[in-house]
Design a protein that fits this description.
By secondary structure, the chain is mostly helical. Helices cover 70% and strands 0% of the residues.
C-alpha cells in the first residue's frame, strides 16, 4: 500500500494528474465502504505515506486533488498539509 502511495506521489511529481486522480478516487471510494481493518490499512499505509518525497510542484499539483476523506486522514496524522522535506 505504501508503494501505491509512492506511485501516486510520483505521478503528481511527473504531472500525470489523470492517472493520479484515478488512484485517489479509487482509494477514496474504497475508504467509504471499508471494513475497520481496511480503513486502518488505507489510513496508515496509504494516506499517511502520500506525498513522501513529493516535489514542490508535485505537492502543489496533487494536494488540491486529494478527496476530502483522504485529506482529513492526512491532516489528522500530519497536522498540516504536505510540504517538501529536504
Amino acid at each position: 500500500m505504501e508503494e501505491l502511495a509512492n506511485l501516486t506521489t510520483i505521478l503528481f511529481n511527473q504531472g500525470n494528474l489523470e492517472e493520479a486522480l484515478e488512484q485517489l478516487q479509487y482509494m477514496s471510494e474504497k475508504l467509504d465502504t471499508a471494513t475497520k481493518a481496511e480503513f486502518e490499512y488505507i489510513d496508515v499505509y496509504y494516506t499517511e505515506h502520500l506525498f513522501w518525497k513529493g516535489t514542490k510542484e508535485g505537492i502543489e499539483r496533487g494536494w488540491p486533488l486529494v478527496p476530502d476523506n483522504l485529506k482529513k486522514l492526512y491532516l489528522d496524522f500530519h497536522g498540516k498539509p504536505p510540504r517538501v522535506v529536504v
